[in-house]
Amino acid sequence: MTAEERAEKLRDLQALDQQLQAAEARLRGFEPALAEVEEPARSVEREIQTLRDRLKDLKVEERRLERSADEKRARARLLQERLKTVRNLREEAAAQAELDLVRKALDGYEQEALMLLEQIRKVEERLSELEGALESVWKEVEANRARLLDERRAAEEELAVLASKRENQALRIAPQDLKLYERVRAGGRSVVVATLTPDGACGQCYNMVPLQIQNEIRAGKVLISCEACGVLLAPAKGV
Ligand SMILES: [Zn+2]
């Protein structure tokens, strides 16, 4: 096997390793997406709960207001009766003054009750809107989950195919070259093999390679690491 052929096989291995790395990253990307797939439905459910709590509070408030208004109405009836039986102007003035106050308070309660009923109506409207939408939001969530799971399965299959291609490619490489390749790659780098440029620089970091070493690389006797960045330097094709 010529040095050129050896380098070519290593480059093919490197291409597969890069594809594997990308496929693994794609696969990992599904985890956060799957973890968050329910969020749109959960968010609608949270809003529904908040509105239900609010509605409960508003209705308590409405009942309280209703009771106060009832008390004032009863008091107003009593005062009206009293006005029919007053014995003198002083008593009449006192009853009338209280009646005016009670009616004023009653007006206030009624206005407050109207605003409250309007608030209740709006909350109920929004609530029924959300409750009506919830089912379709969950359906959408399930569809998205199914699609993500399908895509993840496809990504897993792709990864398995690449892994087996990689295994086959590794078998075609001379053991000492493979060992060298794995050693350089163990540093966590994705570029392991680079081509010597025509003017004698490393194709990865572009540091100039000493002339003596350039000659050895071009002669193709050995695979040599770049002194600066550590990649294996291969002669350019057809050089
Ligand atoms: Zn280099």
Q: Alpha-carbon distance between the termini?
A: 16 Å
Taking all Cα atoms into account, the compactness measure Rg is 41 Å
Let me know the largest β-sheet.
3 strands, mixed
The tally of strands reads 3
Number of domains: 2
Which small-molecule species are bound to the chains here? zinc ion
**Strand content range:** under 5%
Side-by-side strand order of the widest sheet = 1-3-2
Please work out how many helical segments DSSP would assign. 5
Q: What number is the mean pLDDT?
A: 93
Overall structural class, as computed from helix and strand content, comes to: mainly alpha
Low-confidence stretches: none
In sequence order, what are the helices and strands, one letter per element?
HHHHEHEE
Based on CA inertia axes, which overall geometry fits? rod-shaped
Level of helix content? over 70%
Question: What order do the helices and strands come in, and which of them pair?
Answer:
Layout: H1 3-35, H2 39-85, H3 89-171, H4 175-185, E1 193-195, H5 211-219, E2 224-225, E3 232-234
Parallel strand pairs: 1-3
Antiparallel strand pairs: 2-3
Architecture overview:
By secondary structure, the chain is mainly alpha-helical. The protein has two domains: 3-13 and 174-234, no CATH class; 37-170. The chain is built from five helices and three strands, in the order H-H-H-H-E-H-E-E. The chain has a three-stranded mixed sheet with strand order 1-3-2, with helices on both faces. The longest helix has 83 residues, at 89-171. It is rod-shaped and about 130 Å long. 10% of the residues are buried. The mean pLDDT is 93. Residues 202, 204-205, 207, 226, 228-229, 231 line the site of zinc ion.
